[in-house]
From TrEMBL:
EC number(s) given by UniProt: 2.7.7.65
InterPro entries attached to this UniProt entry: CHASE4, Diguanylate_Cyclase, GGDEF_dom, HAMP_dom, Nucleotide_cyclase, Rev_trsase/Diguanyl_cyclase
Cofactors (names): Mg(2+)
Claim: Transmembrane is one of the keywords in the record: yes
Membrane-spanning parts: 269-291
HAMP domain mapped to chain residues: 288-341
Coiled coil spans: none
A family per Pfam: GGDEF
One example GO MF annotation: diguanylate cyclase activity
Name under which the protein is recorded: diguanylate cyclase
Catalytic reactions of this protein: 2 GTP = 3',3'-c-di-GMP + 2 diphosphate
Keywords: Membrane, Transmembrane, Transmembrane helix
Segments forming domain GGDEF: 377-517
Length: 526
């Protein structure tokens, strides 16, 4: 049976039964009766918070207006006097009123005096150079020329901060005469204001100053615009922009969860019981045909993730797609395992020769040794040393010596390209080859091919009796794991190969010595 046929039959039965029962109970009886009420209540929550945000700015309007209709302020704007500041505009008064910035502008909207509670509220942080400041942040020329009182208030972005602001034109207290200028007061939208609004509205909400005045695909509301609830949710968010339409705040109202429709009612319990019965009808075949293969696959993937090994999955499943999926997975595992050694060899390269370095040898040899102990094939090591390399360096120089090392390394790489083979630079002119999975004949064939490959480079070496660069090799090969070799780690194997290399040098160099480690057969004596 194909997976889509099975799922179609199962889905059709579940849909027919669950749709008639669950939808009838939930959508026709339960939900409509309370959804409208909840939306209305959540809408009132949003309005209460919005009004609280707007109300928190009223004190600033009052303060700014009181200063603006002060007759002495008219004279001060026209003629800024340090004596007036000392007697009337002292810092304590602004601190007591929770004002973070107080700025005095003349008729041309030029700053003539300022107070700020900190560097963040310096007049340089005011966006006075932006288009639209006149009329939105400061009075326009028309408002100044007409001589009528005008007020502007709302939110304003000052650098990384967002503040309430209030701007009132400065006029004589009788309201007659020309406009002398305007006053701008600001108060930081701080945690204290947040708490004040929560106490005023009795609604819990989060107030976040936007790090960047940008919104991707979102719209923002004005300071006094009221958001609307479109659907029931545990929380609702909206953005506020300042007087210059710069997105500044994100407001998130957290609603009382007790108001959100609960599924734990008599109607909902009946609905879920009906769904449970219908699900039980289909659970037996579904579990046998779909869930069990998925559980097996999950177990295999979990072992792979935690043990760091590649495993295959069983393929004998009734559903065609599941069986093909596991077969394809096993093919991928096989390819990954085939390329794993090669990929690891690329991750740690010797900077001179470009082949794997000592660290790569440790990682590769450790894994090969582990697999060998698990009974997965043979393991072997070949130690190589360039014959008479120091005299070669002394004769031709270190740069030519480095070039010879590179050529020898690349020649060895050309022969060690199969899965389970890794050639590494062991140190100086010495190389080490790790072989996993070969037998003795294959290892000897590989070693002799490497000997010949180096000879074929035909690099002249006047200090060598062979007159060309050659290598000496010592190797050790262990057949499949046996408890007799339980104490032999891969470092010990490398040491044995190095001893064979010493014997190869003693026997004239340019040759190979192999030690074959295998379990001696037992003979029955009769």
């Amino acid at each position: 049976m194909r997976l889509n046929h099975f799922l179609n039959i199962l889905a059709l039965g579940l849909l027919l039964l669950s749709f008639l029962t669950a939808s009838g109970i939930y959508y026709l009886i339960y939900l409509p009766r309370i959804e409208e009420q909840v939306i209305s209540r959540q809408d009132r929550d949003l309005q209460a918070v919005q009004k609280g945000i707007a109300y928190a700015q009223k004190n600033l309007d009052t303060l700014c207006y009181d200063y603006a209709i002060w007759d002495d302020m008219v004279s001060f704007v026209d003629n800024v006097s340090p004596e007036f500041v000392t007697k009337n505009l002292f810092d304590n008064a602004f601190e007591a009123a929770n004002v973070d910035g107080f700025y005095v502008f003349n008729r041309q909207n030029q700053l003539v005096w300022q107070y700020r509670s900190g560097a963040d509220f310096d007049s340089q942080q005011l966006p006075l150079g932006k288009v639209g400041v006149a009329g939105k942040l400061l009075p326009s020329k028309v408002e100044v020329d007409t001589g009528k009182p005008s007020v502007r208030s709302g939110l304003l972005r000052m650098g990384s901060r967002v503040v309430y602001f209030s701007n009132v034109t400065v006029l004589p207290s009788n309201g007659e005469g020309e406009v002398a200028g305007s006053l701008l007061t600001v108060r930081n939208v701080s945690q204290a204001i947040h708490e004040e609004i929560e106490q005023f509205s009795l609604i819990k909400f989060d107030l976040e100053v936007l790090a960047k005045p940008e919104l991707a695909g979102e719209t923002s509301l004005g300071f006094r615009e009221t958001p609307k609830v479109d659907e029931i949710s545990a929380e609702h968010s909206w953005f506020l922009h300042d007087a210059l339409n710069v997105p500044s705040l994100k407001i998130t109202v957290i609603h009382d969860r007790n108001l959100i429709p609960s599924i734990f009612t008599v109607e909902s319990i009946l609905m879920f019981l009906s769904v449970l019965v219908m699900s039980y009808i289909a659970i037996v075949p579904f579990s046998a045909l779909v869930v069990r293969p998925l559980r097996v696959a999950n177990a295999v993937l979990d072992k792979m993730a935690h043990r760091g090994v590649l495993l295959t999955m069983p393929t004998g499943w009734a559903i065609t797609e599941v069986a093909k999926l596991t077969e394809s997975f096993n093919l991928v595992v096989e390819k990954l395992e085939r390329h794993q050694n090669y990929l690891e060899s690329l991750s740690f390269n010797d900077p001179l020769t470009g082949i794997a370095n000592r660290r790569s040898l440790e990682v590769f040899a450790e894994r090969a040794h582990k697999q060998w102990r698990e009974g997965k094939g043979a393991i072997g090591f070949i130690m190589l040393d360039i014959d008479f390399f120091k005299p070669y360096n002394d004769t031709v120089g270190h740069q030519s010596g480095d070039q010879a090392l590179i050529k020898v390394a690349q020649a060895l790489m050309l022969e060690c390209r199969r899965r389970g083979e890794l050639v590494t630079r062991y140190g100086g002119e010495e190389f080490c080859v790790v072989i996993h999975g070969d037998n003795l004949a294959q290892m000897e064939l590989l070693a002799r091919r490497m000997l010949q490959r180096v000879r074929d480079l035909n690099i002249y070496h006047q200090a060598s009796p062979y007159e060309i660069i050659t290598v000496s090799m010592g190797a050790v090969l262990y057949d499949g794991y046996h408890p007799e070799f339980a104490d032999d780690d891969w470092q010990h194997m490398v040491k044995l190969a190095d001893e064979q290399l010493y014997q190869a040098k003693e026997s004239g160099r340019n040759n190979l010595q192999i030690l074959h480690r295998k379990v001696s057969p037992l003979f029955v004596v009769g």
